[in-house]
């Protein structure tokens, strides 16, 4: 019973909100968080795209081991690791069931497992990069590489607002539960209760979308009243805003060692 209680506490809505806040605003002062965002973008372009075109299993295993180490160094939230692991296990299990259903055997799973390994490498690369950047750092990095100011600000703002939206969605869901009444009969394997809560989850999205539209309009009007359009497009304002972004020795060292490891894996395979 104690194990079940501990698992329930870790999977509660409050714990999910804490993990999201920790991902968006938790600064662990890791090595990756001290890197320039342009270095992380370029690194992600290599390790997040190139592995999809690699078919060598030893190279993919080596990349997966390298990214596991980086994921530990980045101090990624356990919630994100759990979601990634659950998705990969579900995908691998579905491949196995479909293969056996159509008369295949375990050997037919090998190409599909290689695809799963590719997706895991790309997913871990995405997690390492985007969990190592705060919303401000992500927005400034996109602005530095030439993304329009409105787009870069919108991405950073959406990243920042995610924990708030999760909390608001939770409140809407609780309000529906307070005003509603769940079925008196549980049904087979709690099926009636399950369908009732799924219905509430779907209905809770509609007030949330209206709230997001209202928040977005208020934010746009506030930015326009402060002359943000001029700041987004004026070169001197951009230069002043982004003057703290510099490529340092650790950026060059990290990218060089990563590429050297990648090339060594390909050569040894």
Automatic annotation (TrEMBL):
Bilayer disposition of the protein: Multi-pass membrane protein
InterPro entries for this protein: ABC/ECF_trnsptr_transmembrane (IPR003339)
Location within or outside the cell: Membrane
GO cellular component: plasma membrane
Residue ranges crossing the lipid bilayer per the database entry: 41-72, 194-213, 252-268
Keywords attached to this entry: Membrane, Transmembrane, Transmembrane helix
Domain of life: Bacteria
Main location as per UniProt: membrane
Protein name (database record): Cobalt ABC transporter permease
Species of the source: Halolactibacillus miurensis
């Amino acid at each position: 019973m104690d194990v079940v209680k501990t698992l329930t506490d870790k999977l509660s809505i409050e714990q999910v909100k804490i993990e999201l806040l920790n991902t968006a605003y938790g600064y662990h002062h890791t090595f990756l968080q001290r890197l320039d965002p342009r270095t992380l973008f370029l690194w992600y372009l290599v390790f997040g795209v190139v592995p999809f075109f690699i078919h060598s299993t030893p190279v993919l295993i080596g990349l997966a081991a390298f990214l596991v180490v980086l994921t530990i160094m980045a101090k990624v939230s356990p919630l994100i690791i759990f979601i990634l692991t659950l998705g990969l296990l579900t995908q691998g299990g579905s491949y196995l069931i479909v293969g056996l259903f159509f008369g295949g055997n375990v050997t037919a799973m090998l190409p599909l497992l290689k695809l799963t390994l590719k997706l895991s490498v790309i997913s871990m690369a995405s997690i390492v990069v985007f969990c190592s950047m705060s919303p401000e750092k992500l927005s400034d990095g996109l602005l530095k590489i030439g993304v329009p100011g409105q787009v870069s600000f919108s991405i950073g703002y959406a990243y920042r607002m995610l924990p708030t939206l999760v909390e608001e969605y939770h409140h809407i869901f609780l309000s529906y539960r307070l005003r509603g009444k769940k079925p008196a009969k549980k049904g087979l394997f709690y099926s009636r209760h399950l369908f009732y809560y799924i219905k509430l989850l779907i209905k809770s999205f509609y007030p949330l979308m209206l709230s997001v539209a209202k928040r977005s309009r208020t934010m746009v009007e506030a930015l326009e009243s402060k002359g943000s359009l001029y700041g987004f497009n004026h070169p001197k304002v951009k230069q002043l805003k982004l003057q703290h972004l510099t490529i340092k020795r650790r950026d060059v060292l990290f990218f060089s060692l990563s590429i050297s490891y990648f090339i060594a894996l390909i050569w040894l395979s």
